[in-house]
Design brief:
The structure holds two protein chains of two kinds.
Chain A lengths: L3 E4 L2 E5 L4 E7 L3 E9 L5 E8 L4 E4 L2 E6 L4 E6 L8 E9 L8 E3 L3 E6 L1
Parallel strand pairs in A: 2-11
Antiparallel strand pairs in A: 1-3, 3-8, 4-5, 4-9, 6-7, 7-8, 9-10, 9-11
Chain B lengths: L4 E3 L2 E4 L5 E6 L6 E7 L6 E7 L2 E5 L6 E5 L5 E5 L8 E8 L3 H5 L2 E2 L3 E5 L1
Parallel strand pairs in B: 2-11
Antiparallel strand pairs in B: 1-3, 3-8, 4-5, 4-9, 5-6, 7-8, 9-10, 9-11
The chains are: A mainly beta, B mainly beta.
Chain lengths: 114, 115
């Protein structure tokens, strides 16, 4: 079963606009990671935020985490056509043993129009 | 620096057959995880191998088994294939426990179609 749910399921924006995707999860986590997937191929790790962090930046990416609401958001600024992909949040849950596995949401399909 | 390599890229099998998928982790990584991704869904954790042992398993039947070799490469075996096993199978590697702290490196996957 999926731990998290991304919202929206699909998002279409113009190049240069900002894109915001949200992720909600159900149980306590050690960390939350965001991945990108192009055309049903491999996933690319974008950014990891630990449960004791509230915000993190990496280039044009900004991730926030609200553990009280069990939610996270991914902001992509100044989007480009190359950002078109599916974006997944994944949580590492539990103590060290179970934190070895990642539990993914269903993803947000982002389309950036030129 | 080669990333995670998976083979084959695509595979078509008949229901009831057996299949073996292969994965070579990124250089310097010794932990390999396998995920199944159905069309339109997020990846589902199958199991993880470290030091040639399965150290964690997801909610998959015993038809799914694996192996890790001394060079850290890994195989995923699926017996008695069902139509529902059709999916993209992803291999992910990490150094030790680094995956949960720094993220995983994924391969491009093997697309398995069961007919």
């Amino acid at each position: 079963s999926q731990q998290g749910e991304e919202d929206p399921q699909a998002l279409s924006i113009q190049e240069g606009e900002n894109a915001t995707m949200n992720c909600s999860y159900k149980t306590s986590i050690n960390n939350l990671q965001w991945y990108r997937q192009n055309s049903g191929r491999g996933l690319v790790h974008l950014i990891l935020i630990r449960s004791n962090e509230r915000e993190k930046h990496s280039g044009r990416l900004r991730v926030t985490l609200d553990t009280s609401k069990k939610s996270s958001s991914l902001l992509i600024t100044a989007s480009r056509a190359a950002d078109t992909a599916s974006y997944f949040c994944a949580t590492g849950i539990g103590v060290s043993g179970s934190a070895r596995q990642l539990t993914f949401g269903s993803g947000t399909q982002l389309t950036v129009l030129p | 620096d080669a990333g995670v390599t998976q083979s084959p890229t695509h595979l078509i099998k008949t229901r009831g057959q057996q299949v073996t998928l292969r994965c070579s982790p990124k250089s310097g990584h010794d932990t390999v995880s396998w995920y199944q991704q159905a069309l339109g869904q997020g990846p589902q954790f199958i199991f993880q191998y470290y030091e040639e042992e399965e150290r964690q398993r997801g909610n998959f039947p015993d038809r799914f088994s694996g192996h890790q070799f001394p060079n850290y490469s890994s195989e995923l075996n699926v017996n008695a294939l069902l139509l529902g096993d059709s999916a993209l199978y992803l291999c992910a590697s990490s150094p030790g426990t680094g995956g949960r702290d720094y993220g995983y490196t994924f391969g491009s996957g093997t697309r398995l179609t069961v007919v």
